[in-house]
Amino acid sequence: EWEAGIAGAVAGMILAEGGAHVTVIEPPGGSWIRSTQWWPVLSRGKSSRIIDPNSQTSLQDLDGLLHSSEVAIHAYRRGAAPLTILEAATDAQSNDDSSLISCAITGFGDMDSFADLPARDLLVSAITGRCSDQVGWEEGPCYLTHLVPSVVAGLISVQGIMAGLMMRPRTHRAQRVDTSLVAAALAVSELVELDGLTSARELDRRPQGSAPLYSLYKCADGEWLQFGCLHAGFVDRAIDVLGISPVITPLRALPGWGDGVVPTTDDVRDPFRAAVSEVLLAQPRDFWISELS
Fold it and tell me: In which element (H, E) is residue 175 found?
């Protein structure tokens, strides 16, 4: 996993959880992802190697690592200078059943007109219309905080890598898998089936989120905590940790409860949300991060 951003880290995490030995190639000083809250999740199950691009010894280490690897996840377009070592490793293995699967996750793929733009999720979301097809609470595009293009690109990459690994025994050749943040954003957008951007956009009176445990809440220290419980098991666990079962238990009997992930009626949503908000305001964010980890 070599300078592949959040998308590459997501792909590497999934492969690691499937049993692969994943090595993160980091520059001196470490990957920038280490400074984000993504790191504890995306780094699990992986090892790390520091490679200094200005050191010939480090580059030789990288060359050896690539020659002994089955998959390389990176963010370099075809013909990019840093691909020299990677392409050499691919050519050296081109007639072997262990030939390298080279997976490139770029910002804009082969779209030359966007080639010089940074591979940023918000920029990709804006260009592909993701900021306009989301439910919002005011007119105009939404600022999307969730890294949808990167996460989806990571998932797509794993599919491509697995397809390459399955084909390799038949072809005995190295494989190159390409995707991009743009391709990922379009893959999960209904706009690909429309003639243009929608003009009638639904508004929601709850700017913090549409579900009680898929929302943003303020803590005692003024910091905010984002919940993203998309499974009933996560919802139940969060309810237990927050200690709000006495409030929630009667709500489970109401028709609007469903599976608890997205309650369908206000008689469930409003008291559920109020209970979560009240308890989170009693402690600072770091306390809740520790309790929920």
Answer: strand 175-180
Give the residue from 147, 153, 149 showing the smallest Cα distance to 104. 153
Q: Phi and psi at residue 247, in whole multiples of 5°?
A: -80, -40
pLDDT (tens digit per residue) in 140-159: 677 777 888 999 999 999 99
- Ranges of H-type helices in 22-147: 39-42, 56-67, 83-92, 121-127
Q: How far apart are alpha carbons 183 and 164 in whole angstroms?
A: 19
Q: Give the closest residue to 42 by CA, choosing from 121, 117, 147, 130.
A: 147
* Contacts within 8 Å (CB) and 24+ apart, 52-55: 52/27, 52/28, 53/27, 53/82
Question: Following CA atoms 212, 216, 220, 221 in sequence, which dihedral angle do they give, to the nearest 10 degrees?
Answer: 170
- Would you call 244 helix, strand, or coil by DSSP? coil
List pLDDT tens digits, range 14-41: 999 999 999 999 989 999 999 988 899 9
